[in-house]
Amino acid sequence: MSEFSIVRPAAADKAGWRRMYEGYAAFYERELTDATAERVWAWISAPGEHGPSEGRIARAADGRVIGLAHFRDMASPLRGTIVGFLDDLYVDPAWRAKQVGRALLDEVAAIGKARGWPFYRWLTADDNYRARGLYDRVAKRTMWITYQYDL
Which of 9, 70, 121, 129 could pair with 88 in a Cys bridge, judged by C-beta atoms 3.0 to 4.6 Å apart? Predict the structure, then answer.
């Protein structure tokens, strides 16, 4: 039996998903409020019905949630098509370097391929060296610099 699987989150996964999402928020030094966590859970547990995002989790053989990926369709007007965007990817530190992150990325790729996305993109922090090592192996870095216009 495999050490882990990549699946859609189920109601029983909520607490484990929350633990992972709290780890993700802490890594990026962001406060994760109950309201935000509930909203995101609603999005990923009923995609299309409650919001624009979807999710997959990595579940260990013993049932523990050990990673997450949140993604969505994104319009690409110059291409006249829909591409994918990966909003969040996080793996339990104890499970890093065990192919969990790669499996989550590959699952999003498989979903995108089935939907006809020509590619999907994501952002990461410049100093997120460990994750960037994985990203450099599986994807190409683009030339784009990101800006944020606060409202």
Answer: 70
Query: CA 22 to CA 48: how far, in whole Å?
Result: 24
pLDDT, residue 52, reads: 85
Is the pLDDT at 1 greater than 60, yes or no?
no
At 59, which CATH number?
Answer: 3.40.630.30
150 lies in a domain? no
| CA atoms of 125 and 130, how far apart (whole Å) | 11
Tokens encoding 75 = 């319009």
Whether residue 69 lies inside any domain: the answer is: yes
Helix/strand/coil for 86: strand
**Cα 61 to chain centroid, rounded:** 20
Instruction: Note down the domain range covering 89.
Output: 4-138
Torsion angle (degrees, nearest 10) of CA 35, 41, 42, 43: 110
Q: How confident is the model at residue 48 (pLDDT cuts 50, 70, 90)?
A: confident
78 falls within a domain? yes
> Residue 71 pLDDT more than 80?
yes
